[in-house]
Amino acid sequence: MQKLRWGVIGVARIATEKVIPAMQGGELTAVTAIASRDAAKAAAAAGGLGIEKAYGSYDELIADPEVDAIYNPLPNNLHLEWTIKAAEAGKHVLCEKPIGMNATEAAEILAARDRCGVKIQEAFMVWTHPQWRRAADICRSGRLGTVKSYTGYFSYFNEDPDNIRNVPETGGGALMDIGCYLLTTSRLMFGEEPRRVLGLIERDPRFGVDAMTSMVLDYPSGHAIGTCSTQIVAHQRVQIFGSEGRLEIEVPFNAPNDRPCRMWLDTEGDLFARGIETIEVEPCDQYRVQGDAFSRAVLNDDEVPYPLEMSVRNMKLIDALFRSAESGTWQDCG
Questions:
Q1: Catalytic one among 97, 119, 148, 316?
Q2: What distance in Å separates the CA atoms of residue 128 and residue 6, rounded to the nearest whole number?
Q3: Which of 12, 221, 263, 287 qualifies as a FRET site for 147, CA 20 to 30 Å off?
Q4: Does residue 97 carry a catalytic annotation?
Q5: Which among 6, 18, 15 is positioned nearest to 74, based on CA atoms?
Q6: Is the model's pTM score more than 0.85?
């Protein structure tokens, strides 16, 4: 079976601890090269992960004719530059979320995709995870009645001043790092786009990034509300409410790969949880699923699972939430 040959630019933990090991077990993915601006770090990562080639610069890896696609896990402020460089070298790109620092950068990447004739996708692994596909199917099936409300929560605790998530210049903060998941999954559950948003932000005075952001999204069919934080005890949960039922997702974003994912479907409205149906989704590695889905799109010349047009819309929501928090008013999403 033909496999897409992948190169990875950077040795970020998300790459070396999660994405690369997952893709090395993929049906359609082969990780053949890794690069760092520090050649020793690249060599160490390659040796530890059993990767054939190690490069001391991103440009060298991108120029490798035996690499078909690039995985870009660099800090957010470097997504634009290196995704476009890879595209201009004829490489397909899977770029970590968020796709850029704002909607303008996302639109530049979309333009580069069209200009270069390659496939580019933002790495929202939730979009291809079976539990989210199942949740979307339930929302479309009518078992919840009309979907009216989404509530989401995502948090962890990190006060490390050297962590890029606490550095404004690299695109740090709760909304860019994890709040983006609340935005994209609420859009998936409603199957439509919000008309306006309202945002509240609590900034850490030491770092200047948003340590907690809350949001309200006004959809044509209902409302989504969510809170994300980088300075609250780690937790995540999503609930979708309809006129006739409720769906709760136990671990919506960091889905386990060693046990089934669980969702609870309540169509009785019983406050004591009698009659709730437990739905289990078979274990899988969401990064492996994501890599295979993107590789399949490239090999078959099909549309990628999460088109860049969707990424531009998500970045517009992030921009609008930042504007809303500054102005204290609702903001349109256009």
A1: 97
A2: 19
A3: 287
A4: yes
A5: 15
A6: yes
